[in-house]
Amino acid sequence: MSAPFVQAKNLRRVFDVSKPWLNRVLEGGHLEYLKAVDGVTFDINKGETFALVGESGSGKTTVARMIVGLLPPSSGQVLIDGVSMTDPKQAPARRRLRRRIQMIFQDPYASLNPRFRVDAIIAEPIRAFDLIQGERDIQARVGELLSLVGLHPDDRLKYPHEFSGGQRQRIAIARALASDAEFIVCDEPTSALDVSVQAQILNLMRDLQDKFGLTYMFISHNLAVVRHMATRVGVMYLGRIVEIAEGRELFARPRMPYTKMLLGAVPDLAMSGRQRIPVKGEIPNPIDPPPGCAFNPRCPLAFDLCRKETPQLIDGVACHAVNTAPVPA
Amino acid sequence: MSEAVVPHKAEEPLARGAAQTGWFKRAVESDLFYSFRRSKITMIAAAITLLFFLLAVFASLLAVQNPFDPAQLQLLNSRISPLWTADGQSPFLLGTDEQGRDVLSAILYGLRISLLVGILGVVLSGALGILLGLTAGYFGGAVDGLIMRVADVQLSFPAILIALLINGIAKSLLGNKLDEMSMLGVLVLAIGLSFWVQYARTVRGSVMVEKNKDYVAAAQLIGLPAPVIMLRHVLPNTMGPILVIATINLALAIITEATLSFLGSGMPETMPSLGTLIRIGNNYLFAGEWWIVAFPGLALAILILSINLLGDWLRDALNPKLR
Q1: Which residues of B90-106 are buried (b: 16+ CB within 10 A; e: fewer)?
Q2: Phi/psi class of residue A54: alpha, beta or left (left: φ > 0; alpha: ψ in -120 to 50)?
């Protein structure tokens, strides 16, 4: 098998959250940095759906923005189809690559320009990459894309405010497909929608994946959605990937205590009465993370080593308890 | 868990129907037009403002003489009181001044100068302010710091002082070469350079909100250059507040021009604006020739009031929190 389609190598992103210079001088205080993402590495193969799950503030969205190139990483690199998203020398190759990468955003009320008509929104990538010449052909393509996502071709003459949240997300998907994208990063595409509409959007995305062989990177905090969509799942905690596994494997046999806790928090309708690990505590402040494994204050299995040393991702799990000693199931 | 995800069920109702609506119909059905129709004062103010604009545009057709042309003025006709008084003479409806200039004609032509200076001043200050505000808001950092500090410094001087300063510099540079038209240009420049700060601050604020929205990220994603994103995506979404400021600033610009002219550093008497007319008339007020100052003053006051009322309405109508 050739190299993976998307490779994230040791991605790190640090934000400067210090007070302004003048305040630091007058009030005292020092530079403060927030490690949003720290050493994230993963591969995505062509045609698969890679999901990143985690609580709010775990750095999922930051990873997504670095992958598509909206945010430069502090260190590490992203390779898509062998082209670096950061190397200035590969800028021409990156320009050609850009057409093939698209993103679907969380809030469909903010991701469509309210002053643009739907046809202008969808046709913008077509025009930007000069894919189709002639206004008539562009309009025909826009109508085709709208029917593809389950809207009517005449909807292209309306404005975004005339649509519901689910319909807007369909428009966003149509825009993402407009440039014949192959890799689509979906940043919580359904979390702003109500449950009945979520399912329709997810099914639409799966249908489109089958039809066009799309590769998805799927960001979500909703495990039910991830289970429905993902072929492979990475679990993030405080800027690090703590467990990475095949989707089915992860849901059947979670290994990292944090993953177990997350899965334990998912409500189930069957009332199976299964044992759950209750969620305790909250995600720590990323400006001042606990020493060692960031999860140790909440972890039921934590021991001395966890408070001293940050665990490395070995065999898909970053956990001292799992990696050093066999854990009683 | 997967039970929560319903496979292909009812599709969402498709949005269809009246897809093609003309811009005129949309304008008539808009919230803005609705609130316009509900406010009598606004409608009157709009009508008066429109009337003044029409009077200014068609001044040469309406006036009995061209007050800027000395050949048409006759000293014999000087200081005639308005038509309805005992000494009134035809065609001078509002009387004449000491040079035999018909006051009504002078007002019509003066209105033209005042509105021209006001509008050009607003356009200049708006263009400057929007450009600087967009740049500051979009790029942030040191660029933002530099532009906004300049704005802060400028804001600590009254606008009229800056206008006077620019005027004084222009006069000392150009001296006698300063004819009527270049004086008009200097006034526009003075007003433009003293009113840009408000635009810049407002635009910067809106841009900082808008640029973090996902539609801007979506535009960056397809590799559009920053100027295109700023002008095509960000700017149109900040137009509401700009429109309000422009309307209110039009009134302010006209007043500033009138003030400068009244103080003698604005339009000369050979090509008077409303402010110049008031200054001329002021000299005759206590000699009993009240009409020379009263009518230009009244015209200016009504114009400013109407524009300000329009601006107030626009501000309220575009601010969803006040609805």
Answers
A1: eebbbbbbebbbbbbbb
A2: left
Cα separation, A201 vs A215, in Å, equals 16
- Cite the beta strand spans of A95-182 per DSSP E: 101-104
d(CA A322, CA A280): 20
Q: How far is CA B157 from the centre of its chain?
A: 21
Determine the residue of chain A that is closest to B16 in CA distance.
Answer: A155
| Residue of higher predicted confidence among B12 and B133 | B133
Which residue in chain B is spatially nearest to A222 when comparing CA positions?
B1
d(C-alpha B200, C-alpha B125), whole Å: 9
Backbone angles phi, psi at B14, to 5 degrees: -75, 135
- Cβ–Cβ under 8 Å, residues B185 and B116: no
What is the pLDDT at residue B321? 59
Distance from CA of B165 to the nearest CA of A (A): 33
What's the pLDDT tens digit per position in A82-110? 898 888 888 888 888 999 999 999 999 89
- Spatial CB neighbours of B283, under 8 Å, sequence gap ≥ 6: none
Asked if A307 and A322 touch (Cβ cutoff 8 Å), the reply is: no
This model of the complex carries an ipTM of: 0.86
Return the pLDDT at B71.
82
- Report the CATH superfamily, name and number, of domain B34-322: MetI-like (1.10.3720.10)
Residue showing tokens 């004062």: B41
Chain B residues lying within 8 Å of A167, measured CB to CB: 12, 15
Average pLDDT score, chain A: 88
Give the mean pLDDT of chain B.
85
pLDDT recorded at residue B54: 94
| Per-residue pLDDT tens over the stretch A48-71 | 999 999 888 888 999 999 999 899
Q: Which residues contact B259 (CB under 8 A, 6 or more apart)?
A: B160, B266, B275
